[in-house]
Amino acid sequence: MKTLNIKKPLIAWLIIITTAFVASAQDSRIQMSSLDHLAAKASQTVDVSIDERLIRVAEKLFSNAKPDEKEIRKVLVGLKGIYVKSFEFETEGQVTPADVEQIQSQLRGPGWLRMVGVKSKKDGNFDVYLLMTGETIGGLAVLHTDQKELTVVNIVGPVDLEKLAKLEGQFGIPDLEIEPTKRSKKNDEK
Amino acid sequence: MNEDYLWDKSGPPDPEIQKLEEILGALRYQPKPFEVPGNVVVLRPRNYVPLLAIAATLLLALLAGGIWLRVRSRNEPHQARVPSGPPVTSPKVEEEKTVPKPKPEKGLAPREHNVAVHYKRRNRTPGLTPREREEALAAKQQLMLALRVASEKINLAQRKIQSTSPTNQIKNHHRVG
């Protein structure tokens, strides 16, 4: 009978702790492995998968003395993972609605907020989702589907959208021409 | 004296022993209930179970707090943890900066200067072994590629929103799920 007195608070605490951890670890990672079969059909594939450990390792190489790298460091603060899958195809219709649905169905889950949805015949569809954990952003997902392209970006952790958007053009890496068609279109617009 | 009677009360009783028995019989043990004197305070055995339960819960709370802090500290910026030192650059940039135009330092012979440069170069990324550095460089490149794609897509979406006419389907702050 006396052991019950110990068991009760112990069980209560275990429940509280478990609940707290489960709540804190609300994962904003999207499973993108269902898109892997597209790589065989794609003319160009970008597949980046960086977990928290790699982010922390890479973070050490970003200098605080350089303004652009400092900005990147700011974006990386608190991030737990960055996952990108981008496929470009020579011909249209390689991406099926089922492929897109595999991603979108995950983004209909609790906490996800569709911030932006753009449908364009010219440039395809853009969807930007945010995972809200209370008042803060716990994750980001960008889904871009085009006639000849499918790109999914998933950032796990608190993301500053403004800072992330500002990063474009600040990178010292060569242009990999991930989006040659888009670039030409952009230039035309300018 | 009959010793058998003295030993186990067998045999004929010995009057001398019987007399002694009578005399000493008054001092024989008389069973009676234990009585606690009035001036003595009786302490009941203390029940430590609730105290143990409280201690266990506190211990668990501390453990949970410790784990929580550890998880939080891992998520905090690394600026504080990265040792202050010269800026870290990629090896290529590093070599361009250090090797082609080495300024001889004051008071150092050429050989000493080379050692100093080498020392500086080795200490660019303190705490990183060559293998870790290689991994970090690869991760950095991947990271920049990922951020570039992410940034590009977000900017494209932003530009689309700004340039799209109201007839297009733009849904801002639309909750799904």
Summarize the structure.
The complex is a heterodimer of chains A (190) and B (177). Chain A has 190 residues and is of the alpha+beta class. Chain A contains 6 helices and 6 strands.
Explain the overall architecture.
The complex is a heterodimer of chains A (190) and B (177). Residues 172-190 of chain A have low confidence and may be disordered. Chain A has 190 residues and is α+β, with helices and mostly antiparallel strands. Chain A has one domain. Chain A contains six helices and six strands, in the order αβααβαββββαα. Chain A is globular, with a radius of gyration of 20 Å. The termini of chain A are far apart. Chain A has helices at 2-24, 52-59, 67-76, 97-106, 161-166, 180-189; strands spanning 44-51, 81-88, 112-120, 124-133, 136-146, 149-156. Chain A has a six-stranded antiparallel beta sheet. Chain B has six helices and one strand, in the order ααααααβ. Chain B is rod-shaped, with a radius of gyration of 46 Å. The longest helix of chain B has 34 residues, at 130-163. Chain B has a domain at 129-162. Chain B is mostly helical and 177 residues long. Mean pLDDT of chain B is 69; it is low at 77-123 and 167-177. Chain B has helices spanning 3-8, 15-25, 49-75, 91-98, 110-122, 130-163, and one strand at 174-175. Chains A and B meet through α1, β1, α2, α3 and β2 of A and α3, α6 and β1 of B. β3 of chain A pairs antiparallel with β1 of chain B, so a sheet runs across the interface.
